[in-house]
Every structure is written in structure tokens, then in C-alpha cells.
């Protein structure tokens, strides 16, 4: 398989994962497929030419989102923590840390630790202050708006 095939598959599998995430009614088979496509996307991106730490981190973000959606807080937290570590290490875009912290907040909330979720959301919002592009900020803010909240 060529390196360019890895990039194409990474993109296609990322998009397929989002199609499954956006489905109003998923079956257990859809959920299994969603986990597989998210992890496969992350793998193929990691093999693509010119892969950057941000690409690897965003693969972890997608895996975290899928596992959080399925209520698998521990696995979601694992992938979110990997993304936070990658974002804090540098060589990422200015919005990566905010996105990584959003994933961590979501995983904490799904796991029932709403205090940690609120703290991580506040950190994500603070990180957003240094994001230059309004569209990038809006994407992360939209994700933050969908975090599970206290009732």
C-alpha cells in the first residue's frame, strides 16, 4: 500500500465515522463499525506521508469521541489524554489543545465526573483564547456546547 493510499483511507474512514456518528438511529452493528472506522482512520493517518503530531492527535480525538458517544468513558479518556499530551508537546495548530481538552471534558462527563468535566471545559475555553482563526474557534465552541451537563 502506498503512503498516499494511507492518507486517502484516513480521510475516507474519518468521514465514514462521522456519517455513523451523525446517524439518528444506530444499530449495534453500526456502533461496532463506527469503532472500527475511527481506529482504522487513526491508523491510516499515522502512516500517511508528512504525518504531523496534530494528525495523530486528531485521530485520538475521533476515537475518544466515538467511545464517549458509546458511553465507554475509560477508553474515551485514554484517547483524549493521548491527544492532550500530543497537543502540549507542540508542533500542532493553535486549536489542537482546546479540542483535546474538549475531548477530555466529554470523557469525564460521560464517566460521571462532572467536576472534572467542568474544570476541563474551563481549560478548553481558556485555550480557545489563543486561537487566531474564528472558524477554528467556532468548531471547538460547537463541540463544547454539546458536552453533557449537570441537570
Short summary:
The chain has helices at residues 3-22, 28-47, 53-69, 73-89, 96-110, 114-128, 134-145. With 151 residues, the chain is mainly α.
Layout of SSEs?
Blueprint: H1 3-22, H2 28-47, H3 53-69, H4 73-89, H5 96-110, H6 114-128, H7 134-145
Helix pairs in contact: 1-2, 2-3, 3-4, 3-5, 4-5, 5-6, 6-7
The overall average pLDDT, rounded, is 96
Low-confidence blocks of residues: none
What is the chains' assembly state? single chain
Q: From the alpha carbons, calculate the radius of gyration and give it in angstroms.
A: 15 Å
Give the helix level as a range of percent: over 70%
For the report, how would you describe the main beta sheet?
Answer: none
Number of helices: 7
Q: In percent, how much strand structure appears in the residues? A: under 5%
The general outline is: globular
Calculate the terminal CA-CA distance, rounded to whole Å: 49 Å
Category by helix and strand content: mainly alpha
- What is the strand tally? 0
- Helix-strand pattern, N to C? HHHHHHH
Describe the structure.
The termini are far apart. The protein is built from seven helices and no strands. It is mainly α and 151 residues long. Helix 5 runs antiparallel to helix 6. 77% of the residues lie in helices and 0% in strands.
Amino acid at each position: 500500500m502506498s503512503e498516499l493510499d494511507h492518507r486517502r483511507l484516513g480521510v475516507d474512514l474519518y468521514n465514514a465515522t462521522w456519517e455513523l456518528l451523525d446517524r439518528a438511529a444506530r444499530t449495534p452493528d453500526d456502533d461496532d463499525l463506527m469503532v472500527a472506522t475511527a481506529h482504522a482512520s487513526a491508523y491510516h493517518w499515522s502512516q500517511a506521508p508528512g504525518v504531523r503530531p496534530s494528525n495523530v492527535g486528531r485521530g485520538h480525538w475521533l476515537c475518544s469521541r466515538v467511545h464517549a458517544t458509546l458511553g465507554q468513558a475509560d477508553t474515551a479518556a485514554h484517547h483524549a489524554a493521548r491527544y492532550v499530551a500530543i497537543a502540549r508537546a507542540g508542533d500542532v495548530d493553535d486549536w489542537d489543545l482546546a479540542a483535546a481538552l474538549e475531548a477530555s471534558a466529554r470523557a469525564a462527563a460521560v464517566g460521571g465526573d462532572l467536576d472534572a468535566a467542568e474544570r476541563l471545559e474551563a481549560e478548553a475555553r481558556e485555550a480557545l483564547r489563543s486561537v487566531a482563526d474564528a472558524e477554528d474557534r467556532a468548531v471547538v465552541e460547537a463541540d463544547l456546547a454539546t458536552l453533557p451537563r449537570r441537570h
